[in-house]
Amino acid sequence: MQRLVDLFEAAVGRNPKGPFICIPPLAGRSYLPEGAEWSYAEIATRVDEIERLYRAAGYGHGHRVAALLENRPEMLLHFFALNRLGAVLVPLNPYYRTDELSYVIDHSEADLAVSVPERLAELTEVCRALPRPIPVFDVYALAGRLPGPRGPALPGAPEQTSEAALLYTSGTTGRPKGCRLPNEYFLNSERWYAKASGHMRLDDRRDRAINPLPLFHANALAISTPGMLAVAGCVIVPDRFHASRWWRDCIECRATLCHYLGIMPPALLNLPPSPQERQHRMRFALGGGIDPEQHAAAEERFGMPFIELWGMTECGVPCFAGEEPRKVGTRAFGRIVPDMEARIVDDNEQPVPFGAPGELQIRRRGAEPRRGFFLDYLKNPEATEEAWQGGWFHTGDACTQDADGVLHFVDRKKNIVRRSGENIAAAEVEGVLQASPDVAQAAVLAVKDEFRQEEVMACIVPKAGIARERATAERIFQWCSERLAYYKAPGWILFLDRLPTTSTQKVQKHEILGRDVDPRTLPGALDFRPGKKDRR
After folding, report:
1. Do the domain assignments include residue 465?
2. Is 409 among the domain residues?
């Protein structure tokens, strides 16, 4: 197989009448409130129709299409259609605000954008104001002849190393970086997932995976979907995670496995016990970041193993703890898959002893260490080479390794806040804060949160004459909320007299707050978490 669509077409051939995409019902939702389910053959027909539109317009190898399609099945339909032509899907995060959308669309050099109807006017305005304006179409009203791309397609037929998707991920330099993902990246996910053993064995043409994570991120788009294609199974796509109806959706959609984020188990454990939580048919849950103290309790109460994994947009998911002993409650996420290798090193790139923390670095075995990873960061060769110093991919995650090869997560070295599965670059939020008329200096930190793993804390030195009071903090919070996706805005604001710096004026964030400080107990910390709401 050379392309992701080859995997899809093989599944269509093996299980044409079997279910492929299932949408749980949700009253009041703007699309399919009653829910829906389509077979592989039905989805193949729709993919053919979309492909003909793109092909007639001249789209081909290397052309990019931006898609603001939320967690709707159209994201997968357009992905397969574009992939067959060798064109590239650029998923847009629906929580992005105008400036963020403008940056991603312009940086990606997309030739066209498709949108859900509710965001069409906003996205059209954004795309008209670009340095290189592009057309925008309602995804439900595509018909006739689409405008063609501005430039020619790349020569040759698409292959494993051809770009299939361009996913933007937060880094430490402010603006999101565009990860160019090749076809082989998706095929690797299929192979690793489908051939996993232990608790993760899949049933051919029978499994149904419910994944509430967003299709504009790698997990749902590049991990669970290829995994189900490998066994011609069904992907169940909620609009997002709803704790109150999670078990109902799992039961009604006949899920046999699920994906989770660390915030999901505590949300479910906080619900009153109900018969539904043991009436499901799921054999295992797969995810990352479960609280070690809640790991065993979740497995006992819900009657299935919660299998920890590790992965990044740049490399997919090359580690999962599906085999016993899984070392429940230790943050263990298993061993590296056989065709990859991993090491734990100190700041001097020297291996550390078993059990000692260091940075996790990984690569492909053999003569091509980068094969199957992201191709590069678009238009950022410096960041790409920095990530691959010494021939190893530097994950930026602090981990340990046991003598038996099992890896454990410790912490993140990178300057990133991990909130409800979203990576938030502190530098990006700091840039917005620094532009506020109230702010002289700002530093953004990750603080622990009882529900969302981490939250954004803004430590602010106000400008001269600006009062350090609640009204000032409210103006700053509003300033950020108007310019950033809601989840990036500060959940906590703390006013300071100064920020500690080095002799070269670099802020020393580790001196601002001690490790593991609970912001709820911090004098002067103002809580803005209730105001962080999706206002799309």
Report:
1. yes
2. no
